[in-house]
Amino acid sequence: MRREQLLDRLRSTPRWDVLVIGGGATGLGCAVDAAARGYSTLLLEAHDFAQGTSSRSTKLIHGGVRYLAQGRIGLVREALAERATLLDNAPHLVHPQRFVVPVYRQWDRLLLAAGLTAYGWLAGARSLGPSRLLSVDDTLAALPGVQAAGLVGGIAYMDARFDDARLAIALMRTVFDLGGLAINHLPVTGLHHEHGKLAGVGARDAETGEAFEITARVVINAAGVWGDEVRQLDDPAAPAQLAPSQGAHVVLDRRFLPGGDALLIPRTPDGRVLFVIPWQGRLLLGTTDTPRADCPLEPRPLATEIDFILDTAGRYLARRPTRADVRSAFAGLRPLLGAGGGSTAALSREHSIEVSAAGLVSVAGGKWTTYRRMAEGIVDRAVAVAGLPVRASTTAKLALHGSPGAPSDDVFGTDRAIIDRLPGAGQRIHPAFTLSEAEVRHAARSEQARAVDDLLARRHRALFIDAPAAIEAAPAVAAILAEELGWSAARTAESTEAFRRVAEGFL
Q: What angle do CA 256, 506, 499 make, to 5 degrees?
């Protein structure tokens, strides 16, 4: 999967059936769905796959207990069905996870038990198990490190966790497996119209500056929080429809909650819930809901958001975490529907599909859990716009790239056998991470890693789990990428320094 080979294929294809703008969850899902139906499919990503929102989630594949409390039964039911699908289709990346809610008032225990029983019931035959009332002793055993004073018991329920960026990479690889083409670091620079209808796009290689004129029968705008910008390339008068919301997370050492169960804090001062989840050998805490007027590629958590998370978690933990305990802190931007400013907490997590007068198919909103179902509907709409032969979606039963067919803790799945044959297999880059030299080579050869950031933020999650250690690992990673990609000394130093600047935002 050398880049020049990908570009050669782009140059030699006169016209695509489906062109997708955006390499996050929704865009990659659309590309997989379209390619699986047999349409010639191209996806263009301006930066790296999942570099925006799709690598910065709370790492949950879930129905959303908060949405149930809001009465969004349809959203919860759909999400739980898609949870089951992902557990089947990507068992190396999506795993069941038990959550425990500690309870400090008996009345709350009854209310939460009723709600979580309904949550399990909505999953139907694909339930991961019923919720259970826990005694004080059982709760303390499940959550060693939880605040014991005043505890009256707990409630356990099942959901699922995943690695968001690795799932995005698996989707990208699946596009290729199905005969499609997906290229990162190739931003769209304009939309082209013929006789008032959208006919294709202009794009430019971010590495070489080479310009491309690409024709397509239909274009899907899946640019996430930047979707309004693409809509306005098509129609400068198109009104904004998105209200970006920032969700911040912090990562702590496991000593604050050393067990295998996750903690759900059912009520925060802003009316949300807060999760404390075992992930990548650390604890992931989040999230917040902060309106933003801008959409930077690398949003940084606000000091107030970090303090809010630490303070809220500290009320439930025996050892209160401080800013000095944070190993990494990051933020993502939700592309929520409902432009207009003000609070974003009540805005819909559902999605909408819009077709412009020129035929641009734009999707706004949505969440990782339902990406596949969203993509199915978006491609259905795109097929109608383009007048393509109608073919049913097949992704509900499509195993994603690397799927071993059974649960596995190895995010590479069946690719592990390939990695183990590469130089440096078993040679760790840094003692804080499992990342090996061979995995870096694999990322460069087969996963389109084009920068140190691509590698340490998304092919491996080093930056998200321990930012200081990731900075230490960067020179070694850059040296291997330089060997694999033919970088000059200047390019190697530039990529290392660019990563350091990004990583500073995680400290």
A: 135
**DSSP string covering 398-444:** -PPTT--SS--S-TTGGGHHHHTTSTTTT-BSSTT---BHHHHHHHH
H helices within 402-488, ranges in order? 416-419, 437-446, 452-453, 462-465, 467-485
Q: For residue 370, what are its two tokens?
A: 């339902």
Q: What does the block give as tokens for 320?
A: 């209160």
**Cα angle 476-479-481, degrees, rounded to a multiple of 5:** 110
pLDDT digit string, tens, across residues 148-196:
999 999 999 999 999 999 999 999 999 999 999 999 999 999 999 999 9
Mutual orientation of helices 25-36 and 371-386 as an angle, nearest 10°?
A: 60
> Residue 59: which of 146, 159, 162 has the closest Cα?
162
* pTM of the predicted structure, to 2 decimals: 0.96
Every domain of the chain and the residues it spans: 3-53+166-241+345-397, 95-160+243-337, 413-504
Structure tokens at 37: 């139906």
Taking only the tens place, the pLDDT of each residue in 81-107 is 999 999 999 999 999 999 999 999 988
Tell me which CATH code domain 3-53+166-241+345-397 carries: 3.50.50.60
- The CATH-assigned architecture of domain 95-160+243-337 is 2-Layer Sandwich (3.30)
* Average pLDDT along the chain: 94
413-504: what fold?
A: Helicase, Ruva Protein; domain 3 (1.10.8)
* Per-residue pLDDT reduced to its tens digit, 336-349: 887 544 444 444 45
> CB-based contacts of 346: which residues, under 8 Å, 6+ apart?
none
**pLDDT bracket for residue 272 (50, 70, 90):** confident
- Which pLDDT score, from 0 to 100, does residue 112 have? 86
